[in-house]
Specification:
Family: Belongs to the NapF family.
CATH class of the largest domain: Alpha Beta
GO molecular function, one term: metal ion binding
Order of helices and strands: HHHHEEHEHEEHE
Largest sheet: 2 strands, antiparallel
Strand content: 15-25%
Helix content: 10-25%
Structural class: alpha+beta
Organism: Vibrio casei
Protein name: Ferredoxin-type protein NapF
Distance between the termini: 42 Å
Number of domains: 2
Strand order of the largest sheet: 1-2
CATH architecture of the largest domain: 2-Layer Sandwich
Function: Could be involved in the maturation of NapA, the catalytic subunit of the periplasmic nitrate reductase, before its export into the periplasm.
Amino acid sequence: MVNAFNCNIFDKGFGLTHSSLNHSRRQLFTRRNLSDKPSLPWIKESLFSDLCTQCGQCVKACPTKIIQPSDGGFPRVDFQQGECTFCYQCAEVCPEPLFNPKTQPAWQAKAHIEDSCLAKKNIDCRSCGDSCEPFAIQFKLAVGSVAQPHIQLPDCTGCGACVSVCPTSAITIKHT
C-alpha cells in the first residue's frame, strides 16, 4: 500500500515534514485543531462557513496583516504575524452580514502559556509580559527559580501581542 509518507514529495522543497503533518484522519476532517482558536474578531461563528465568500476584503483591510487565508480560502487570524488592535476594519469592509456590532466583545479568547515556556524551564524570559499592553501577564517571584508568568484572565483581551514575541511559541490564544 502506498501512502503519502512513502512518497518523496515531502523532501522536494514543499516545506512539509513528518512532524508538521497531522497523522490523525479524524482531526483532519473535523478541524479540531482550529476549533479552539479564534477565526476573526466579532465574527458570527455559526454563519461564518455558510456566508463567507472568501473575497479577501478583510485580509486586505487588516492594518497589522494578521488576517490570512487558511482552509479553503477562509480568513483566519494568525497571531504569529502580530497582534489584533481591534480596529474593526475587517468587519467594516465585509460585504456579508458576518460580524457582530463593535459594541459586543470581540471574542471570548484568552492567552494560554504552555509547558515549553522558557520561564517554566528556569530560563529568565519576560518577552510576553513586556509586550502585553493591558498587563494581563504578570510574573510571580519564586524561590530558587526565575519568576513564573501568570495570566490574569479577566485582563487578557486575546489580542495576541504575546504570541509572536515568544521565542519558543509557548503562547496560544484559545477560546475560553
